[in-house]
Amino acid sequence: MRTPLLAAPPGAGESVDPAAFRSAMAALAAPVTVVTCYDELGAPRGMTVSAACSLSLDPPLFLVCLDRRAGSHDALVTAPYFCVHVLGPGDEDLAMRFAGPAEHRFSGAPLLPEPAVAPALAAGLRLTCERYAVRDGGDHSILIGRVTGVDAADGARGGLVWHQRGFTS
Fold first, then answer.
1. How much of the chain, in percent, has pLDDT values that exceed 90?
2. For the segment 75-127, what is each residue's pLDDT rounded down to a tens digit?
3. Which residues pair with 61 in a beta bridge?
4. Is the pTM of this model over 0.85?
5. Is residue 4 scored above 70 in pLDDT?
6. Which residues lie closer than 8 Å to 158 by C-beta, 6 or more apart?
7. What are residue 117's phi and psi, to 5 degrees?
8. What is the average pLDDT across 7-17?
9. Rounded to a whole number, what is the largest CA-CA distance in the chain?
10. The predicted structure's pLDDT at residue 152
11. What is the rounded CA–CA span in Å between residue 119 and residue 87?
């Protein structure tokens, strides 16, 4: 037997107030990550991202949502490889550095010395990813990476979250 279609609830199809939506989303705790890559000229690029999560175990996929207005957006969505650094308690300054002006992000940042497919910070749990797909997400791009490596810097396991417009763990 077919289930009858339900009538649309009152207000269906209307847009929610952006400020109300943003305020509601502040109640949702999100991991704090820094995503890095090399741009087409080989320069390091990166930004702080709080919309990130695992997507699949087989194949191992991870996704990050990148604001289309961000200066590193284009480099990240076109780079063949990128690195996601899942930050932990004590990495708040690093998160703020990569959320600030682009020219200061890598200056003095704790980078690992070995060459890698993407700049590797000596902080947090690192996921090295090969670009798998890029999807439209409104004012964001959804960057999906196939995880090719997992490494914990100094035993770090992540745990820094953004909640109610501030850092916590």
1. 60
2. 999 999 999 999 999 999 999 999 988 888 998 888 988 778 999 998 889 99
3. 56, 146
4. yes
5. no
6. 31, 86, 87, 88, 124, 125
7. -75, -15
8. 72
9. 66
10. 74
11. 15
- SS3 of the chain: the string is CCCCCCCCCCCCCCCCCHHHHHHHHCCCCEECEEEEEECCCCCEEEEEECCEEEEEECCEEEEEEEECCCCCHHHHHHCCEEEEEECCCCCHHHHHHHHCCHHHCCCCCCECCCCCCCCCECCCEEEEEEEEEEEEECCEEEEEEEEEEEEEHHHCCCCCEEECCEEEC
| Domains of the chain, first to last | 18-168 (2.30.110.10)
pLDDT confidence of residue 101: 82
- Which residues have CB under 8 Å from 96's CB, separation 6+? 48
Shortest CA distance to 122 belongs to which of 114, 106, 135, 110? Answer: 110
- The first and second tokens of residue 13, run together, are 């199809």
Peptide bond into 80 cis (omega under 30): no
pLDDT given for residue 96 in this prediction: 94
Nearest-10 Cα torsion for 113, 117, 121, 122: -50
